[in-house]
Amino acid sequence: MSSAPIVIAGAGVAGLITALSLHRHGIPFQVYEQVAQLSEVGACLQLSPNGTRVLIDLGLDDAMRQVVCEAERKEVRHGLSGQTWKLFDLGEDCRMRFAAPYWFIHRGDFQQVLLTALRDRAPHALQVGIGVQSVQDQGDHISVQLSDGRSVHASGLLASDGVRSRLRSAMVPNDPVQFTGLMAWRGVVPMARLPAHLRVTAEHALGTNWVGPGGHVITYPLRRAQLMNVVGILERDDWHHESWNQTGSHEELLADFAIWHDDVRELMRSIEQPYKWALLGRAPLSAYAQGRLCLMGDAAHPTLPFWAQGANMAIEDGAIMARCLANAPVPLALLAFERLRLQRTTQIVQRSLDNASRFHNPVLADASQAQAYISAEWQADKVRTRYDWLFEYDPLAVELTLPQA
Ligand SMILES: Cc1cc2nc3c(=O)[nH]c(=O)nc-3n(C[C@H](O)[C@H](O)[C@H](O)COP(=O)(O)OP(=O)(O)OC[C@H]3O[C@@H](n4cnc5c(N)ncnc54)[C@H](O)[C@@H]3O)c2cc1C
């Protein structure tokens, strides 16, 4: 049974990066994705050096360059007064310090790059429209029941089936998906529609974090700066519907940001179609592996998007999982993965939560207090302490400690 392939449940970021990484190591695998048509849904992503170095190592540099904007810098702006502070330089500075770029990308474009690479390199490895329904660990293999009625044997099952993971629910009792009390508005704006002072070019790609009382807004360019991504996050406990594609009206969106700076409101007015959804989470786990089953990505460690690390963690997971499986047989490899990933991912999830109070601090309601607060919180040395350990992490080089059989 040990020659059975690894089965991956879910073709999101975690599943596809794991698949490409396993392929690179020559490890047999099969991916099942429950959705028949993987379409261009959802948000946009900031990919930091801890993630992009894996993508480059997987040979995806050229394909990514066709669709990303490489970030030149990021700034922080006060949501009410519009005053601006530097967050950090990226571009050359990022490449020199971390030996990898920082990219802005549309989520649909990213998934397309990963899918194309997988279909080119392993044409029969992905089956769509087939969900993993349940699993039974049989000791020397794991049997995987699929939604088309088949049961397949695997040497291990990697559950990369997202925050609503049914495999996690089967592994961990009493672990509901919870509404975090935060909702997000999102939308894209054709860059040409914006007034000149809000436009950004691909050559000087700027990302902005607007911070304000009880909410924040993130903007950055996409698709070679043809589009501007706009995401507004609010503390709101009256809205629980989770969907990538729940539409909202401009009136409702502008009412939610009624007291915000004109530039924010202009960006929101210019969104083609505003979408909204509730941000969901699950309690942190103390284990990701159980026998031949292991959770990865959002299934293992869903996070608030306040540090832009959910997809980056999923990329790290994929690279490290493949290295573990290349160096140890299945149950031990999954344990090695868990040992390497638990502490870092738990820390990132916790620190993302801390960013909620930093970004949404009540003092931001008052312009003079806000100025002192932002100047202190976003001092260059504090920013370095906050971000450097994240960006320096190299999933391709981090030392593996393999448990003994
Ligand atoms: C507003 C917002 C902004 C964000 N911004 C950033 C950012 O800037 N940077 C960043 O790094 N992260 C960001 N994230 C987080 C990031 O999007 C997620 O962490 C990441 O996409 C998780 O990837 P995943 O593969 O674990 O899960 P998913 O992308 O959810 O993929 C799971 C896949 O599994 C499939 N599936 C589900 N159940 C089954 C089953 N039983 N069998 C087979 N298939 C199944 C699903 O159809 C889906 O395709 C953001 C999130 C939000 C909400």
Short descriptors:
36% helix, binds flavin-adenine dinucleotide, FAD/NAD(P)-binding domain, 10-stranded mixed beta sheet, 19 strands, globular, alpha+beta, 405 residues, single chain
How many whole angstroms does the radius of gyration measure? 21 Å
List the bound ligands: flavin-adenine dinucleotide
Uncertain segments: none
CATH architecture annotation name of one domain = 3-Layer(bba) Sandwich
CATH superfamily of one domain: FAD/NAD(P)-binding domain
Biggest pleated sheet: 10 strands, mixed
| CATH fold-level name of one domain | FAD/NAD(P)-binding domain
Overall 3D shape: globular
Helical/strand content category? alpha+beta
| Number of continuous helical runs | 13
| Strand residue percentage | 25-35%
- How helix-rich are the residues, as a percent range? 25-40%
**Mean pLDDT over the full residue set:** 94
Account of the protein in words:
The protein has 405 residues and is α+β, with helices and mostly antiparallel strands. It has a domain at 6-177 and 282-392: FAD/NAD(P)-binding domain (3-Layer(bba) Sandwich), CATH 3.50.50. Helix content is 36%, strand content 26%. It contains 13 helices and 19 strands. The chain has helices at 13-24, 49-57, 61-65, 91-98, 107-121, 166-171, 250-256, 262-270, 297-300, 310-327, 330-359, 367-377, 380-392, and strands at residues 6-9, 29-33, 44-47, 69-78, 84-89, 103-106, 126-128, 132-137, 142-146, 151-154, 156-159, 178-190, 205-212, 215-222, 227-235, 246-247, 275-281, 289-290, 293-295. Strands 3, 4, 5, 6, 12, 13, 14, 15, 16 and 17 form a ten-stranded mixed β-sheet that branches. The protein has a six-stranded mixed β-sheet with strand order 7-2-1-11-19-18. The longest helix is centred in the C-terminal third of the chain and has 30 residues, at 330-359. The model has no long low-confidence stretch (mean pLDDT 94). It binds flavin-adenine dinucleotide (FAD).
